[in-house]
Amino acid sequence: MDLGLRDRVYLVTGGSRGLGFAAAQALVTEGARVVLSATHEASAAAAAARLAQNATAADTATSVVTDNADPATPGRLIAAAKDRLAAWMVR
């Protein structure tokens, strides 16, 4: 079933492990592009790399290190998603 997610960009907070990673993986499987957020650089980058290994499109996932308790986080995530969307559209 095609869910119509291909080439859309989704933000997944807590996306480096557990349910967040599983959600990101499901989105990538459907052809979506994801911006993961996590609190640790190493785990965020590793999760994005794991998603990219299983994806059909190059540069499918990227990560941002954030703390969801920080009031500036939503703005940073939206800016990152817009930046990535612009970069993906150029390709």
What does this entry look like structurally?
With 91 residues, this protein is of the alpha/beta class. The protein has a single domain (9-90), classed as NAD(P)-binding Rossmann-like Domain (Rossmann fold, 3-Layer(aba) Sandwich), CATH 3.40.50.720. Helices cover 47% and strands 18% of the residues. It contains 3 helices and 3 strands; from the N terminus they run E-H-E-H-E-H. The protein has a 3-stranded parallel sheet, sandwiched between helices. Strand 1, helix 1 (18-29) and strand 2 (33-38) form a beta-alpha-beta unit. The chain is globular and about 35 Å long. The N and C termini lie far apart (27 Å). The model has no long low-confidence stretch (mean pLDDT 86).
Give me a quick take on this structure.
With 91 residues, the chain is α/β, with parallel strands linked by helices. It is 47% helix and 18% strand.
List keywords for this structure.
single chain, 91 residues, alpha/beta, Rossmann fold, three-stranded parallel β-sheet, 3 helices, globular
- Assign the CATH architecture: 3-Layer(aba) Sandwich
> How much β-strand is present in the residues?
15-25%
Do you know the CATH topology? Rossmann fold
As a percent range, the share of helical residues equals 40-55%
- Just give the CATH class: Alpha Beta
Strand order of the largest sheet: 1-2-3
Number of strands: 3
The CATH homologous superfamily is called: NAD(P)-binding Rossmann-like Domain
Shape: globular
Number of domain modules: 1
The biggest sheet amounts to:
3 strands, parallel
The ordered string of helix (H) and strand (E) elements is: EHEHEH
Q: Could you state the oligomeric state of the chains shown?
A: single chain
Average pLDDT across residues? 86
The termini sit apart by 27 Å
